[in-house]
Amino acid sequence: MNDSQSSIPEYYPELILRKLIIDRGEVNLNRFYSADRKQILLSEEQNTFSLQFVALDYLNSDIEYAYILEGYDEKWSLFSKENEAMFKNVPPGEYLLRIRYKKDVLDTVYKEYSVAIKIAPFWYHTIWAYLTLVLLIILCLAGYIYKLHRKGFFERLARAWAVSKGLGEIQQENLLVKASALGNWVAFFPYCNQPEQITFIQRIIEIIEENLDKEELGPTFLAERMHISPRQFSRKFKDLSGITPSDFIKKYRMEKAAQLLLETDMSIQEVIESIGISSCPYFYKEFADKYGTTPKNYRAHHKAGTLTESES
Fold first, then answer.
1. Which of its termini does the chain have fewer beta carbons within 10 Å around, N or C?
2. pLDDT (mean) for 55-66
3. How far apart are CA 78 and CA 53, in angstroms?
4. Which has more confidence, 101 or 163?
5. In the chain, where do the E strands start and end?
6. According to the model, what pLDDT value does residue 8 have?
7. How far apart are CA 58 and CA 235, in angstroms?
């Protein structure tokens, strides 16, 4: 115990600890002192406690006390006649309990007493317990990794990665082949990825191009040229493109008509005949639905834009 005393004009008796109460039960205080009696030793399960103290002045009933548990409290308690310091759920650590008393409410001179208090953590809250736990986790992980190694897991993983990398390169190569084979029509066939599928669609486009001026060009015509039943042909084509063969032929004819209008001096009637459409009203309607204008205005607008660019 450490005593410090202000310069005082009269005798101030010693202040002593009377009782230690843990979880509302009084215990033998002497059992909790360290060997040198300079420290009170508690465990983490005893971290709710109170200490009663008293100044050995039997003639003065106006004594007032104030205390602070340094390391836990932020400020001193107010002076009062209450001679018990109560603490609840104090974390493990080392603290210093300081107690002051004065003889009168108006007195500015006081006597101070201090005692160290140590609260030891549970064994599993110590740094050694944490280090042991981390070490055990590392050993378990190392053992598990070694077990995986013995079973050839990492070799299989490396082979799988190599295969996936190879597949990625093959897919990239297939995309290049697809773009080269299908040209401007590649976007119409998002589900066409395998070499045999690309060849199938490429042949269809060639047949359409070669027979575009034929009015009978349609799903049945294509199926016959592909040597496949119309029903099977339509299903396979839709699986690869998402649209029916008839819709694709219509799109192809409109795209071709727009191309001829811009790149040739053919009359509109000649353009219509070259794409295998016999009905002018039908052509004008489909063209307007796709491009939002008439064939004549489409040609004039785009050729005027091309002329302006060449002049600039």
1. C
2. 81
3. 16
4. 101
5. 2-5, 15-22, 25-27, 39-43, 49-55, 64-70, 84-87, 93-102, 111-120
6. 45
7. 109
Express as a percent the part of the chain with pLDDT over 90. 59
Instruction: Tell me which amino acid residue 76 is.
Output: W
29 CB-near residues (< 8 Å, 6+ apart): 17, 18, 19, 20, 40
Sign of the Cα torsion 154, 160, 163, 164 reads negative
Q: From CA 249, how far away is CA 215, in angstroms rounded?
A: 11
Both tokens of 306, joined, read 């091309």
Query: What is the separation of C-alpha 160 from the centre of its chain, rounded to a whole number of angstroms?
Result: 26
Evaluate whether 288 touches 294 at the Cβ level (below 8 Å). yes
Yes or no: say if 168 and 160 are a contact pair by the CB < 8 Å rule.
Answer: no
The CB density around residue 206, as the number of other CB atoms within 10 Å, is 11
To 10 degrees, what angle do helices 280-291 and 295-311 make? Answer: 50
At 261, which amino acid appears? L
Contact present, 49 and 40 (Cβ < 8 Å)? no
Distance CA 221, CA 5 (A): 115
Which residues have C-beta within 8 Å of that of residue 156, sequence separation ≥ 6? none
- Can you tell me whether residue 304 is helix, strand or coil? helix
* Rounded CA separation 146/55 (Å): 68
* pLDDT score recorded for residue 307: 45
Cα distance between residue 164 and residue 150, in whole Å? 23
Tell me what pLDDT residue 311 has: 47
d(CA 56, CA 202) in angstroms, rounded, equals 109
- pTM for this prediction: 0.45
Tokens 């064994």 belong to which residue?
Answer: 123
Output the six-digit token pair for 214: 């034929």
Residue identified by tokens 């004819």 is: 253
Q: Which residues contact 208 (CB under 8 A, 6 or more apart)?
A: 217, 222, 249, 252
Report how far residue 222's alpha carbon sits from residue 233's, in angstroms, rounded to the nearest whole number.
8
**Closest to 189 in 3D by CA, of 226, 238, 223:** 238
